[in-house]
Amino acid sequence: MRPAGERGVRLTVVGCSGSGPGPTSAASCYLVEHDGFRLLLDLGSGAFGALQALADPDTIDAVYLSHLHADHCLDVAPLVVWHRYSGRASGHRLPLIAPAGAERRLALVYDSGGAPLTDVFDFAVTPVSAILGPFTVQTARTAHPAECHAIRLTAHGSSLVYTGDTGPSRAVVDLAHRADVLLAEAAHPERDGLPPDLHLTGRQAGEAAAAAGVRRLLVTHVPPWVDPAAQLAAARTAFPGAELVHPGATYDV
């Protein structure tokens, strides 16, 4: 593990509950920091409250939304409220990267009239590759009903891959090749009859990590009605060192 320090990449779990907020966690939201740059990966339902305990919202430099399901994007709405009415925002527009159509759909989430949110956000469509602050960004379309993109962030020789939501996906495995950390969803319990191209089981998350040859697997996005210990145990059948994330936990990549 790289020693913690100013130049390292740090991941903080803001919320990790799958499919919606749970009794002990907000829905998906992860803070990634490097050299003073702060990037939010998703901003799901309940996450804005938890975020404020970890970071001043005005210090967030960009937001990346893997997709536009509520448990990954709904708390864009209170972030807009904060920027417009708290009196604490610096007034700069916040880069927001998301699948096509986010500008219209997030405006409807905030306001039934669909008034533009361009006073708060500088919208951009998810790129295949880009530079975002200190990070080199690569993305891949996942196996999910809504358009969803996994993201790989590389900086200072370290790489973090976040799956977003996905079923088993060769594209996601390829994106994660030799990554230092794979932050992988594991929403499906181990049972027959599960819908395809929706979510990973714990075992499938472990298999993806093993196939990609990653150094570390962090299991996340477990719904409140699914046993997290069982998901972790299943992941460890394929990747013995798998870890289960918890709200507020930090990891040096």
From TrEMBL:
InterPro entries: Metallo-B-lactamas, RibonucZ/Hydroxyglut_hydro. GO terms for molecular function: 3'-tRNA processing endoribonuclease activity. SMART domains: Lactamase_B. It comes from the Bacteria. Residues 26-203 form the Metallo-beta-lactamase domain. CDD domains: RNaseZ_short-form-like_MBL-fold (cd07716). This is Ribonuclease BN, tRNA processing enzyme. It comes from Geodermatophilus amargosae.
